[in-house]
């Protein structure tokens, strides 16, 4: 009989979990056991601290639902989401880099025409972002669908508005045959991640800034190319160097050119100030 001691428990538990029927599950679980035990040994985890952590995890599960994903947020603020993205998306340097998905993407956004406004009724400075979807050699990719979503001027996404039951600040734009696309919206603002749950409670006990720099999200899933989940950030925005979820990449920062009145490139008249930005998305073959 092998008795359990402080010295042998890690090997015993890792060996037990290595028996998982699927070999990869065995590898993941036994490595997880070894790293968790190493953590507990390194910090000399107390029973009270362990119980506090369990209760924090319980609250994180309890606050999550089909509209709120506090575990994704946890992974994001720990830098784990971005680490996993970087390890799995080692793309050609010519390709548009990937960044975190975040917890606010909603499937089935409405289809909008070239340059059609997706910001109906939401306050903000109009923004037209246009460009071309290309492959690594610069050739246009026609028909790519750009699934776009962003927060409003209160920093809230559609799923954070209990009273909103139609699509808000999200749309799918299809690139034309020559790869060109145009997204019309309002310029996004910086915002804070949800601070009213267990993640916010923990962050507020640190000097971590809870802000994300102004950005919108784009997802491109084009047959024959690697799916791309990314953001575009506004050049000069606050928090570019302190993004709470580590999502900023230099190649994703775009200049918003200030414009005044006149017509947008698709001929739509505009009154007052607006922004024009150009960006080409470059996809890597699958
Ligand atoms: C977002 O940009 O929507 C987001 C990403 C990670 C955590 C919270 C929000
Ligand atoms: Fe966002």
From TrEMBL:
UniProt GO molecular function: catechol 1,2-dioxygenase activity; ferric iron binding
Cofactor requirement: Fe(3+)
InterPro entries: Catechol_dOase_N, Intradiol_dOase_C, Intradiol_dOase_core, Intradiol_RC_Dioxygenase
Listed GO biological process terms: catechol-containing compound metabolic process
Transmembrane regions listed in the UniProt entry: none
Gene3D superfamilies linked to this entry: Aromatic compound dioxygenase (2.60.130.10)
Protein name listed in UniProt: Hydroxyquinol 1,2-dioxygenase
């Amino acid at each position: 009989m092998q008795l359990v001691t402080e010295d042998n428990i890690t090997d015993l538990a890792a060996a037990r979990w290595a028996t998982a029927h699927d070999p990869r599950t065995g590898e993941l679980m036994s490595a997880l056991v070894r790293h968790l035990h190493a953590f507990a040994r390194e910090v000399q985890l107390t029973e009270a601290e362990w119980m506090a952590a369990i209760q924090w995890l319980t609250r994180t599960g309890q606050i999550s639902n089909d509209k709120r994903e506090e575990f994704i947020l946890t992974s994001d603020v720990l830098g784990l989401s971005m680490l996993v993205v970087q390890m799995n998306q080692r793309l050609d340097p010519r390709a548009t880099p990937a960044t975190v998905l975040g917890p606010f993407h909603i499937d089935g956004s409405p289809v909008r025409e070239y340059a059609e406004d997706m910001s109906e009724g939401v306050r903000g400075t109009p923004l037209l972002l246009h460009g071309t979807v290309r492959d690594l050699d610069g050739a246009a990719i026609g028909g790519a669908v750009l699934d776009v979503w962003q927060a409003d001027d209160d920093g809230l996404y559609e799923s954070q508005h209990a009273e909103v039951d139609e699509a808000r600040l999200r749309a799918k734009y299809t690139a034309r045959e020559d790869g060109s696309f145009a997204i019309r919206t309002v310029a996004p603002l910086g915002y804070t991640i949800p601070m009213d749950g267990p993640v916010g409670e923990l962050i507020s006990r640190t000097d971590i800034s809870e802000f994300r720099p102004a950005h919108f999200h784009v997802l491109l899933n084009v047959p024959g190319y690697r799916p791309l989940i990314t953001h575009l950030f506004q050049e000069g925005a606050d928090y570019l160097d302190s993004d709470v979820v580590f999502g900023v990449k230099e190649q994703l920062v775009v200049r918003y050119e200030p414009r005044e009145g006149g017509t947008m490139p698709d001929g739509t008249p505009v009154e007052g100030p607006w922004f024009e930005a150009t960006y080409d998305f470059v996809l890597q073959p699958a």
